[in-house]
Amino acid sequence: MASSSANIEPQNEIGHAYRFTPLPQSETEHDHNHQDQPVSFSVESTNTRPAISEYSEEIFSISARACEMIQDLVGLTLLMMLIWLPLYKHLGIPNKDPVPPVFVLNSMYLSNFTTGTGELSATWDAKFTVRNTNVSSIYFRSIYFTIFYKRNPEHALSATSSYPFYLDLGEYVKLHLKFTASDAKWDDNGTFLEKYGLVEEMGKDKAKDGSLNFGMQMNVEAIYYGETWVSDVIMSPHCEDLTIQFLHNNDSGRLANPNRNFSVPIQWKPFSFF
Predict the structure, then answer these.
(1) CA distance 241 to 217
(2) Could you tell me the superkingdom of the organism this chain comes from (predicted)?
(3) What is the residue-wise DSSP string for 43-104?
(4) pTM of the predicted model over 0.70
(5) Position 29 pLDDT exceeds 80
(6) DSSP letters for 121-145
(7) C-beta separation of 132 from 166 below 8 A
(8) How does pLDDT run across 204-257, given as a tens digit for each residue?
């Protein structure tokens, strides 16, 4: 018995769906022997895509909007700079000379002082007070201390530093620092003190008067915050004639003239954001 069949192919790669429609037959042909019938089909695309020109127009439109936004942003930035820079120059500069904070050496204790064979051993234990008396706020970024013999800063014996801190108007901070002779600024051969004869000189002064004179200086970097301005500040406090009086000819002594105020040279420049 003959049968009629049609081979149906699967969908193609771009998603076409095939729809098959048999050809019309007459009644007589339908009554005759069944033979294979020809099959025709039509194709309809189920995947619709916009034209290439439409994509090009859309990309061009996006690019134009982006350019307009960039132009607006640049224009707004320039306008803000024109307004801000004159205001910054007017308000960003202090209208009077800087007034330094108050630095006070409250006390100093010298221990383990020994000299011999060109070497020095000593420890200075010092307490300070720093007070802000004149500006809204001060940020002390760094403070370096150097102690030297008599009045010559080149004859540095020891150095140390403090942690950074803020002081608002009327506030103060107490610092407790230690200097040791091992922190001294030696030369390349390690004979700085012996080269200038300082060890021998200090030994003789102690034996003669039972006392020694020292000096101290600081290098301070800070930021002053005023009402409408900000400024970088450099200070160099210093204090001389710090007399250590030894106790009963031993190796320890105390500051004979405590609560000494430092002289504080100061300079500043406008704080720059650019």
Answers:
(1) 12
(2) Eukaryota
(3) EEE------HHHHHHHHHHHHHHHHHHHHHHHHHHHHHHHHHHHHHHHHSS-SS---PPEEE
(4) no
(5) no
(6) EEEEEEEEEEE--SSSEEEEEEEEE
(7) no
(8) 888 888 999 999 999 999 999 887 778 889 999 999 999 999 987 688 999 999
